[in-house]
């Protein structure tokens, strides 16, 4: 009997050791995952803020959520952080407009180049239609731009590759994407003409706080040609 009791104690101790060992293994795995830099999202990071995948036909840009525009309206969807409009957008980007322009050319997009300061208020931007999606660590999916940015009129955001390379460089606003047709932004929303948001107050745009993560979270914005 004594030998059976000793054997039972040894078996129980061995099982406990095994469970502890497994627990430590899982803990280390979780720790390793949590140690991934917060700015590393969908293959882009502060060290490499833009990725072009010609085979997939995508341009991915690292950005950061600006929670100010969960409450306030803006006409700026995504602006490079060092541009003069760098703090005025829902998404603060880390790729410059000229880099973004060249990347869209690389995946086969064609610029419309039909916008000027003189015709902006009566002209809808032209160029290749650009699909825009957003994701972040833990999101579990890619969200369409219309799921993460709210149009007060309930209309759909339709981005087109306006081009505007010279204006983008000369003006140094940093504008990658604008929420009304724009003579400076690389892509912009054909749904509204220039001035619809700030000047004529036809519509307002805000980030969707019910979907987007909190202020300051790094997100990846993925651009592709609309099929």
TrEMBL record:
Signal peptide (UniProt feature, chain positions): 1-22
Keyword set, alphabetical order: Signal
PROSITE patterns named in the record: 4FE4S_FER_2, PROKAR_LIPOPROTEIN
InterPro entries recorded: 4Fe4S_Fe-S-bd, YdjY-like
Residue span, 4Fe-4S ferredoxin-type domain: 163-192
UniProt keyword Signal present: yes
UniProt keyword annotation of RNA-binding present: no
Name of protein: 4Fe-4S ferredoxin-type domain-containing protein
Annotated organism of origin: Gemella sanguinis
């Amino acid at each position: 009997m004594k030998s059976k009791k000793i054997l039972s104690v040894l078996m129980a101790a061995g099982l406990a050791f095994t469970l502890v060992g497994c627990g430590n293994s899982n803990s280390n795995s979780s720790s390793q995952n949590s140690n991934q830099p917060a700015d590393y999202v969908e293959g882009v990071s502060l060290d490499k803020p833009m990725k072009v995948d010609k085979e997939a036909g995508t341009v991915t840009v690292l950005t950061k959520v600006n929670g100010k525009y969960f409450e306030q309206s803006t006409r700026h969807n995504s602006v490079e952080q060092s541009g003069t409009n760098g703090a005025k957008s829902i998404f603060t980007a880390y790729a410059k407009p000229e880099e973004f322009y060249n990347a869209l050319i690389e995946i086969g997009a064609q610029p419309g180049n039909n916008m000027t300061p003189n015709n902006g208020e009566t002209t809808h931007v032209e160029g290749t239609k650009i699909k825009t999606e957003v994701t972040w660590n833990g999101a579990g999916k890619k969200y369409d731009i219309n799921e993460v940015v709210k149009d007060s009129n309930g209309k759909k955001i339709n981005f087109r590759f306006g081009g505007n390379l010279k204006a983008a460089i000369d003006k140094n606003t940093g504008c990658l994407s604008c929420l009304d047709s724009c003579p400076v932004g690389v892509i912009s929303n054909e749904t509204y003409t220039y001035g619809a948001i700030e000047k004529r107050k036809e519509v307002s745009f805000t980030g969707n706080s019910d979907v987007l993560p909190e202020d300051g979270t790094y997100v990846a914005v993925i651009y592709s040609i609309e099929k």
